[in-house]
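Entries read sequence, tokenised fold; example below:

***
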Amino acid sequence: MRILYIDTSSSFLYTGIVDKNKLLCEVKKEYNHELSKYALPEIVEMFENNKIDPKSIDKIIVVNGPGSFTGIRIGITIAKVYAWSLNIPITTITSLEAMMLSSKKNTNYVPVIDARRDYVFGAIYSDKKEQILKPKHIKIEDLKQELNSIDDYIIITNDEVNLDGETESYDPDILTIVDYFKDKEPMNPHAVNPDYLKLTEAEESKLND
């Protein structure tokens, strides 16, 4: 099975193609505020440089959040249009699951993304990849309380967050991520939507009006 992976949930484009448990190619580039401009051309170039026919893709795995509101929409839009136009199965995973699976440690995993104002997007997984705390938008102090009951863990993040414990930078292991989720049930492309885990600033402002 040939699978395309897309993650634009941060300022980085993480994408790659896996075929029969082999990573054929990948792109890991930071674009900051220009991600919307370069994400699709970079993916197209990845196909062209590796002489891979877009129609040869059997499945798409796309990260649908949490993370950057704008970034998430970019990846979701590319994946949905691709899946719908070529009738390719598509499924979603969270950025926190991808972070957890990319760690090389054998311990409990705490993937964390800075959400500002003393909040983070975070989750806790066991050393067997089982969910202990589901992905959520959570106060840092509340996450610290959750971690008090866990003996050993690794914090996985590329952000500066006020958490105690050993920290590991996130570098996506696309082959491992795809292999773990390759059999996840596909869904209708029209049902693929961002999962921000919190309201957008515009929605929050509207509620406070």
Observations:
- Helices lie at 35-49, 69-86, 95-102, 140-147, 174-181, 201-208.
- Residues 69-86 form the longest helix (18 residues).
